[in-house]
Amino acid sequence: MRLWPSEHHVGLWTEADYFALGETPDRIELLDGSLLLSPVPSKRHQLVSRRLADHVERAADGLPVFVAVNVRLGVDRVAIPDVVVADTDDGGTVVEAAEVVLVGEVVSPGNAAADRLLKMQLYAIARIPWYLPVEQDGDGHSGETLTVVEPFRWQLDPATLH
Asked: Residue 76 has what DSSP assignment?
């Protein structure tokens, strides 16, 4: 039987408390002393996320592309974006916000407000220059191409993600 992490915790969560949880099957993020718990993403979410990461990786000019990695946004703020492009190495368990070039979030129906508003604000406060929200059930049609010139040149037909 797995216990919910807060059953033995009193008060605000610190980054040390957060990382002491270790690996879990859930996606747990630390936002200003509180935990934001999301179940493992749906199969559709995972497919869209992986396809997005694959597309980004082909265009990222050799920068590493991570899927669901810890990103330290500030003191006691650790988010887990779906896709992260960062100018960093592959060691450790945390990417610093200053290393992040782009984050992509596949908007989850259960976390839509967090994905569309809260995380966008937190990424901006952390000075992450590029945020790409992707709707799982978007109405992107073949031929409606997204063209990006920064942080790297990239074109994406959103219909290829679904």
From this structure: T
Cα(50)–Cα(31) distance, rounded to whole angstroms? 25
Q: Percent of the chain having pLDDT more than 90?
A: 54
Rounded to 5 degrees, φ, ψ at 139 are -100, 25
Q: Taking residues 18-39, report their average pLDDT.
A: 88
Question: At residue 113, what is the residue type?
Answer: A
CB contact set of 127 (below 8 Å; sequence gap of 6+): 97, 98
Q: How far apart are CA 158 and CA 112, in angstroms?
A: 19
| Dist CA 114 CA 30 (whole Å) | 13
Contact 87, 96 (CB under 8 A): no
CB 76 within 8 A of CB 53: no
C-beta neighbour count of 149 within 10 angstroms:
8
Q: 70-126: per-residue pLDDT in tens?
A: 999 999 999 999 999 999 998 899 999 999 999 999 988 777 777 788 899 999 999
3-class state of residue 28 by DSSP? strand
Strand order in the sheet with 83-86: 65-67, 83-86, 100-107, 131-135
